[in-house]
Specification:
heterodimer, A: alpha+beta, Penicillin-binding protein 2a (Domain 2), Beta-lactamase, 21 helices, about 20% strand, B: about 400 residues, about 0% strand
Chain lengths: ~600, ~400
């Protein structure tokens, strides 16, 4: 049976051997390509394959008032996360979750997409879980494989004050926000970042360092232990910041401003520390924490009084008569000017073809500088306007801090407008404006626009004879240097005594700011600024000296009438309440 | 009577035995590593399971050494029929994970009959090609050998087991070549396959049709034959998109995954990516025995059988992989040498067949783990775990050793 002879030729044998070795070489070559040439790339891939990096949010630092009272705290909330790689029957699970949380299941899957970062990274699907919801989820645990919950520290405001514009708020980082950040790698989607106010300014202090844990996971994404080679990193809470605010003072001025529009700022003129500041209307600071409904957000945004708008640093107002001390200082440095010479105020003043009125239609009669300031007479200044040069006046405004940022430590400060020749030429054209503009500017009207924080710095400079500290809200060592205002002592003496007269003279426009407390001396100036948006804005700026301490104040009440009638009584109330509260003892 | 000291036993190719022993030990080393974290139980642990099956495997191959060569030749058709019968048996039982590959006869493990059928089919083919003094120069004389193989292959393909079906088919070409068939005819056998594969790309199809035309022109068959060959192939190519739709989705997926492995990272491509990651991260010397992260964290799929080379690549590195592949090449070449030196045609053809089966296993398995070809469920001989496969491999070794020895009866 096995008679058939083998007929394989040597050539066939060689061909077959050749093919075998070619195939073996192809395979070995491929291994060489993957194992030797691709080693680094695949090693990296192998490591990320097996290591799951889990981060835990570090609690942000607290924000305290000057006496250590907590203004901003953290409260532990729970967030629900899903690990995509472990999530099967996603829709069914989302239905269960949305049932328990009382959410639309669309919201849950929308969140899932929004926070999706990778197959083995937890994606947040809901937050602010109540304990009750948590226990219901726990009961359904068996149907919710791949769903986890974790603690998440959220901002919480335990104090009675709002201070919302100062404290600001944090915002959750989403994809567009993250891509716009400078230090992208320090943040993950879903982290909180200071968005406004102190939360933003002191982000690097408050933020803290996230905890990082490395878990070894198997191909199903199940954790099988910690990775030995990589040191876990516990979360490091952010640093606390101590503000210059006094919670009681802040509370009192917030109460005063309820239902009003405007600004009150109270502070120590020597140091620039702000003891209390309110921009009204304000909002509840926890507006932005927790679940915010679209319609609430719309309501806040659409509100005609713009509660989100921080008037202190972003509101631009004509200062009106409160800047008359600057005009006076400008005149005093002019050798042709004599403060003793009186001008007659008939209640109006003809300049070219325009008639300028004084606030008092009847006229103030014969006025010297002191009388002009305490009566806040405009005509006196109009009649001296020939002694004033616009650029020289604008330098005076700038020497009191207008037209510059005050360097207050909350972001978003505007610098306002201090008109110069160049400014007027650019705005109106070389011949588009007349010297009549100077009449407006010298009494704080016209093109001049200032922010309340600049006014606060201005009153501080007056109170300290030009040596005030930079306005600030947080007690730090490296406060930037403030501008200093240089004037002759005799000029300071005159201006300050005139401001004293504003309060104590029987005709002084600021007399209603005086709380008449024994030993407390008030200095000040009122302002009633005309504005194109309706009723006049009422200003009062001033300071109180009491037991060796100074307390400066800025009151601005939008569209409410005259400074003397409306703003000065508010200042009086504030001085009164602070004197009752702590006798002006501030531990600076 | 057989005398242990007879020349027959002195002629046994010891090099082949050493190669098999080396590969088996390498397999056990890798399986031991995989089994570290496996629960106990003889048949749950790939290492102990493999050790267990090694006993009958070696025994069977030794028994074969004592079977006279003419008996093997005589009963090869009978075994061929038995082979067809046993691959049909699973269809009588219930489906095993949707397939009819496995035969459950009450043992703690299932048997894969196609592993044995492939050996029997090969022997029948060797006998047919050696018994009939075929005029291999004629195209018609290769029809019956192909039919002989196609019958069991069709059954296996319907189990469905594409991998084993390929293994059954592949020895046909080299054995026909060994039997003296014109390479042109072998080319014509492969031509329809290329026509179908290239049909999905207009450019590739055009190139292929041009190439086909040149080959047919140079070989100068009769005009009618050449025209029908040429247009038959074009027609088939145009039809293959419809044939494609007749394929099972998992088969379509495997082919598609080859073309674009990144397309579906969690499907079949996931396996290739994980396999390449394991191998690539192993580097020159590997991460060390028992500490491959991809292996032990179960990123590697079917690591004890289909992807065992990836485990070896990760833990033992390029050096060990190259050594294994070189030893395997040496092993195959030794078989081919015996086949060339064989005095009778039956032994020569059977040895060529076994060499092709082993080489196909190695090439398909290895090329799959490194992403050169689609994922096919084919194990690596002597190294992958698997009872039926280990025993059938050792049966082939027994036959190889037996048929390698030249003696006159």
């Amino acid at each position: 049976m096995l008679k058939a002879e083998n007929i394989v030729s040597y050539k066939q044998y060689l061909v077959s051997i050749f093919i075998i070795w070619i195939l073996v070489i192809i395979l070995i070559g491929r291994f060489f390509q993957i194992q030797i040439m691709g080693h680094d790339q695949y090693s990296k891939k192998a490591n990320t394959n097996r290591i799951r990096k889990v981060t835990s949010t570090a609690p942000r630092g607290l924000i305290l008032d000057r006496n250590g009272q907590i203004l901003v705290d953290n409260s532990p909330t729970y967030v629900l996360t899903a690990i995509p790689g472990e999530l099967s029957h996603k829709e069914k699970k989302f239905d269960i979750i949305s049932d328990i949380l009382g959410l639309d299941s669309l919201t849950v899957s929308k969140n899932y997409k929004k926070y999706y970062r990778g197959k083995f990274l937890p994606a947040r699907i809901a937050k602010d879980l109540t304990f009750n919801q948590l226990s219901q989820l726990e009961e359904n645990k068996i149907n919710l494989g791949g769903i986890y919950y974790e603690q998440f520290p959220e901002r919480y405001f335990p104090s009675k004050v709002n201070a919302s514009h100062i404290l600001g708020y944090v915002r959750e980082i989403d994809k567009p926000i993250r891509s716009g950040l400078d230090q992208k790698n320090e943040y993950e989607i879903g982290d909180m970042i200071g968005w406004i106010g102190l939360e933003k300014q002191y982000e690097s202090f408050l933020k803290g360092i996230r905890g990082i844990y490395f878990y070894e996971v198997d191909a199903f994404g199940r954790e099988v232990g910690q990775v030995q080679e990589l040191e876990p990193q516990n979360p490091e809470p952010g640093k606390n910041i101590v503000t210059t605010l006094d919670m009681e003072i802040q509370y009192k001025i917030e109460e005063i401003m309820v239902g009003k529009k405007g600004v009150i700022m109270v502070g120590n003129p020597e140091t620039g520390a702000i003891l209390g500041a309110v921009s009204a209307p304000f909002f509840e600071p926890d507006l932005f924490t927790g679940l915010m409904l679209e319609k609430d957000w719309e309501k806040v945004l659409q509100h005609p009084d713009k509660p989100l708008f921080n008037r202190m640093i972003q509101g631009l107002y004509p200062p009106g008569s409160i800047v008359k001390m600057i005009t006076a200082s400008n005149l005093l440095t002019n050798p042709e000017f004599d403060p003793k010479i009186t001008q007659i105020c008939e209640g109006h003043y003809q300049f070219g073809d325009r008639l300028f009125g004084c606030w008092s239609d009847l006229g103030h009669g014969a006025m010297d500088l002191t009388a002009a300031i305490l009566n806040s007479c405009d005509i006196y200044f109009y009649k001296n306007v020939h002694l004033i040069d616009l650029n020289d006046l604008s330098r005076s405004f700038q020497s009191f801090g207008f037209g510059h940022p005050t360097q207050i430590d909350i972001p978003g400060e505007l610098i306002g407008i201090v008109p110069t020749m160049e400014y007027m030429n650019t705005r109106y054209g070389r011949y588009g404006w007349s010297k009549g503009a100077l009449l407006n500017i010298c009494i704080g009207q016209g093109e001049l626009l200032v922010t309340p924080i600049q006014v606060f710095n201005y009153i501080n400079l007056l109170a300290t004879r030009g040596k005030a500290g930079t306005p600030h809200l947080v007690m730090v060592d490296n406060i930037p240097e403030n501008i200093s205002t240089r004037l002759d002592t005799k000029h300071w003496d005159r201006i300050i005594s005139d401001m004293r007269n504003v309060i104590i003279h029987k005709n002084g426009t600021g007399r209603r700011a005086n709380p008449a407390i024994l030993g407390m001396d008030i200095y000040g100036k009122t302002g009633t600024s005309e504005n194109p948006h309706g009723e006049n804005h009422a200003w009062f700026i001033g300071w109180a000296e009491y037991g060796g301490a100074k307390l400066s104040i800025v009151v601005l009440l939008e569209n409410s009438g005259s400074g003397g009638a409306v703003a000065a009584p508010v200042a009086q109330k504030v001085f009164n309440q602070i004197a009752t509260y702590n006798q002006f003892t501030f531990n600076d | 009577m057989i005398n242990i000291r007879s020349t027959e036993f002195k002629e046994i190719p010891v090099k082949i035995i050493w190669a098999v022993a080396f590969l088996t030990v390498m397999g056990l080393i890798v399986l031991k590593s995989i089994s570290q974290h496996h629960p106990g139980g003889l048949f749950q642990n790939p290492f102990t399971k493999q050790l267990f099956f090694l006993i009958p495997a070696i025994l069977v191959s030794c028994v074969i050494l004592f079977i006279p060569r003419y008996t093997i030749h005589k009963y090869s058709y009978t075994f061929y029929l038995i082979g067809i019968f046993i691959v049909l048996l699973p269809f009588l039982g219930t489906a095993h994970a949707g397939t009819y590959r496995w035969l459950n006869i009450g043992l703690p493990f299932a048997i894969q009959p196609s592993e044995f059928a492939k050996v029997f089919t090969l022997l029948a083919l060797a006998r047919y090609l050696s018994d009939h003094n075929l005029e291999m120069q004629k195209f018609s004389s290769i029809i019956i050998p192909i039919l002989l193989v196609i019958i069991p292959t069709t059954v296996v393909l319907n189990q469905p087991d594409l991998g084993t079906a390929i293994i059954m088919m592949t020895p046909v070409l080299p054995m026909l070549y060994w039997a003296g068939a014109r390479p042109f005819y072998l080319f014509l056998m492969l031509a329809p396959l290329f026509s179908m594969l290239t049909a999905f790309d207009n450019f590739a199809f055009t190139i292929w049709v041009g190439f086909l035309g040149i080959i047919i022109f140079l070989s100068r068959p009769k005009r009618m034959v050449s025209l029908s060959l040429f247009f038959g192939n074009i027609f088939l190519g145009l039809f293959s998109p419809f044939l494609w739709n007749a394929l099972k989705p998992y088969q379509q997926n495997r082919i598609l995954t080859l073309l674009n492995p990144e397309k579906d990272p969690l499907g079949a491509a996931y396996q290739i990516i994980q396999s390449k990651t394991a191998i690539g991260s192993g580097g020159l010397f590997g991460k060390g025995w028992g500490v491959g992260t991809q292996t032990h964290l179960k990123f590697l799929p079917v690591q004890e059988s289909d992807f065992i080379l990836s485990v070896m690549g990760e833990e033992l590195g390029f050096i060990s992989i190259s050594l294994v592949l070189l030893v395997f090449g040496f092993f195959i070449v030794q078989i081919l040498k015996r086949s060339y030196l064989s005095k009778d045609r039956f032994s020569s053809l059977a040895l060529m067949g076994f060499a092709s089966i082993f080489m196909t296993h190695v090439f398909v398995n290895t090329a799959m783990t490194v992403g050169l070809i689609p994922v096919k469920g084919l194990p690596f001989p002597f190294i992958s775990a698997g009872g039926s496969f280990l025993i059938s491999s050792y049966i082939m070794i027994g036959l190889i050793l037996k048929l390698s020895v030249n003696y006159s009866e």
